[in-house]
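Is magnesium ion placement plausible here? Inputs below.
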Amino acid sequence: MIKVQGVTKRYGSMTAVRDISFEVAAGEIVGFLGPNGAGKTTTMRILTGFLPPTEGTAEVAGHSVLDEPIEVKRNIGYLPEIPPVYPEMEVDSYLEFVARLKGIPNARIASAIDAVLEKTSIAHVRGKLIGKLSKGYRQRVGLAQALIHNPKVLILDEPTAGLDPAQIREVRELVKSLAGDHTIILSSHILSEVSDTCGRVIIISEGAIVATDSPANLIARLQAGGGAIELEIDGPAEDVETRLASVEGVLSVSRGPDVAARATWVAHTGDTPDMRKRLAQAVVESGWGLYGLKQTGMSLEDIFLKLTAAEKIGAVEPEPVEAAATEDGAQ
Ligand SMILES: Nc1ncnc2c1ncn2[C@@H]1O[C@H](COP(=O)(O)OP(=O)(O)OP(=O)(O)O)[C@@H](O)[C@H]1O
Ligand SMILES: [Mg+2]
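Reply from A.M.:
I modeled the complex. Tokens:
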């Protein structure tokens, strides 16, 4: 449904996006993830036909963004970083205005408005001024304008930015409910945000793709070499340390902060699968009290930092994924 090949975008001497390639299959929800300035918005604007790439090609629903921008826009619903809503308009007259702009035939406008009001759950505020809506509701109006022509593809640039946790959950549910009917790319700089909604995540840093995989695979792959188990133990420190270190599969042991006067320990277990049982046995057999036991490994945020740091220092870490970015893009 979306095919990006070797796209580079330069603003003068500044390269915002460098040689990125990826594909998105019909019905997929893909998260576009990267820190500020990574090139997310630039890539999205190229995909929507608003910004020509300096090099490379991009296709949406079989249409080239360079040669057929109008066809591309017909097939895309775009929610920019700042929703293009007019505070002085009422919700339904704004949507009517957008529907006309998008060339929806007069006879179908009313039903198209009803359909998106329903889809985005804002029918009860249809007569209200947009400027008087909460931020979450304004974001839904933004989504409604992106959806009004029932596009195959939705491009959502940080759809949950600036929303409170409850609104974030609502928008996330809404995006999930749109899956299936639409192919969706959404951007964020928060990993946990996209890991929940997206089947696949593309990580971009300084204009280049550093990884693409399912959120679960990203964690699994990067946890290899980074797994750890946290233990809270009541026992003589020196003996505990020696005993934990002697458990088969433990690479090293370090002391964590004390919790309520009890010591915590981190047993680094590398890529050995879950060792909680073995460690628990060692503690209990030694006659010490085991007050806590937790597999930690790396959080998505750690992985994100590791990937982007690896890219900066030219480490080889992300290499196997980059092949996936260009060849296995379709699910
Ligand atoms: N019109 C422009 N002229 C010059 N430089 C630009 C322009 N638009 C973006 N850039 C630069 O290109 C880089 C990528 O910007 P982009 O907006 O795509 O990043 P982003 O990933 O969307 O960041 P954010 O998370 O802050 O929205 C940045 O360094 C930015 O300063
Ligand atoms: Mg942006």
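Short version: The CA atoms of residues 66 and 126 lie 36 Å apart.
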